[in-house]
Every structure is written in structure tokens, then in C-alpha cells.
Amino acid sequence: MTIRPIILLPDPVLRQVSKPIERVDEGVRKFAGDLFETMYDAPGIGLAAIQVGAPRRMLVIDLAKEGEPKAPQVFINPEIVSCADEASVYEEGCLSIPDYYAEVERPKDVTVSYLDLEGKLQEIKAGGLLATCLQHEIDHLNGVLFIDHISRLKRDMVVRKFRKMARDKAPAGMVG
Ligand code: GNR
Ligand code: NI
User: Fold this and answer.
1) pLDDT tens track for 78-122
2) Going by fewer Cβ within 10 Å, which terminus of the chain is more open, N or C?
3) How far apart are CA 1 and CA 158, in angstroms?
């Protein structure tokens, strides 16, 4: 297993729409291991494949708290089948936008269909943090970031800050 570098805002790779996984094979299972290792190292509670530069519709989640046994979950080709009318607000962060947090309103509960690591079709009804995290990760598969759900003023401020940080550490001429 390999820890892969996490792609940061404003890298345009994060805006790519990821492609479905056609066959759940050994390569996919191995890649899931890399995603977990990268997520645990960060550390984070979720990670989408695009965050390590792979435009595939796949994500991992582990909501276990420190000291609790690991609870790894893999979602391949996930789709939101239905969601609650009721909304809830949660303070979100993103490993691709380190040290920035903002409240995001999303549907409170979601039903998601997906393939598991054996390629079997599954469905899960999620509420609470899992519902938030699944929606955050599925957004990544569509090139959407949580800052797209906050005010334009706040978003522009974050994007500007990360653009400047990228410029300050990149060689001259790189990064718009
Ligand atoms: O580690 C993460 N924490 C988090 C907190 C609230 C809502 C969503 C998340 S997901 C994030 C990891 C990440 O960036 N996944 O894409
Ligand atoms: Ni994220």
C-alpha cells in the first residue's frame, strides 16, 4: 500500500468529473488500500479517488473515532437514489482545502446505491455524519467542492488564499 500525495485547491484536477469503474478487480481493491492508507495518514474521515489524481468514481470513508476500532467503508460508482426533504447543517472541512472549515447545508438523510469491493450492488440509508460525508465525497466525483455550497464572498477569499499559497511555493510561471 502507498500513501499518495493529496491534490490541493486550486488544482483544476479537482474539477474533473470522474469516470465509472467498469470492473471491480484486484487493481481496484489494491487502489482502495492506497486510498485508506492516504486517508488514515492525513488524517481524514473520507477520501475520493480524484483527491489523489485518479478520476474514478470511488471513495472511502471511516468514521471511527480515535481509539475506536477501524470501520473502513468503500463505495464504488455511488449514486444518490433519494434524499430527505429535511436539511441539516454541518461544519465541513476537506483534505484538499486544509485548515479551512465552513458550515454547509445538505439533505439530512440520503439513500445511496454503490458497488462493494466484490462488485456486488449494495444500498445504504445514511443519516448524520455518514450522510454528510457521502454527499461531500460524491460531490468530489462530480468535480464539486464543499466551498461551492458557501457564499461567493467566502469562496473567493479561500480560493485567493490557496492560489497565493500555491504561487508562493511553486517555481516562477506556474499556477495562475
Ligand atoms: O476529513 C474530512 N472531514 C470532513 C468533515 C466534515 C464533512 C466532510 C468531511 S470529509 C473530509 C475529508 C475529505 O476531504 N474528503 O473528501
Ligand atoms: Ni473533501
Assistant:
1) 999 999 999 999 999 999 999 999 999 999 999 999 999 999 999
2) C
3) 33
CB 110 near ligand 1, within 6 Å: no
**Strand 102-107, strand 73-83: pairing:** unpaired
The residue range of the domain holding 141 is 12-169
Regarding the beta carbon of 61 and ligand 1, being less than 6 Å apart is answered: no
pLDDT per position as a tens digit, 113-124: 999 999 999 999
CA 67 to centroid of ligand 2, rounded, Å: 23
Q: What contacts 48, CB < 8 A, 6 or more positions away?
A: 18, 58, 59, 137, 140, 141
Tell me, yes or no, whether 61 lies in a domain: yes
CB 132 less than 6 A from any atom of ligand 1: yes
pLDDT at 170: 77
Q: Is residue 106 part of a domain?
A: yes
Spell out the alpha helix ranges (H) of 3-122.
Answer: 26-41
CATH number at residue 125: 3.90.45.10
Q: Which residues are catalytic?
A: 137
Centroid of ligand 2 to alpha carbon of 73 (angstroms):
16
pLDDT digits (tens, 9 = 90+) for 24-47: 999 999 999 999 999 999 999 999
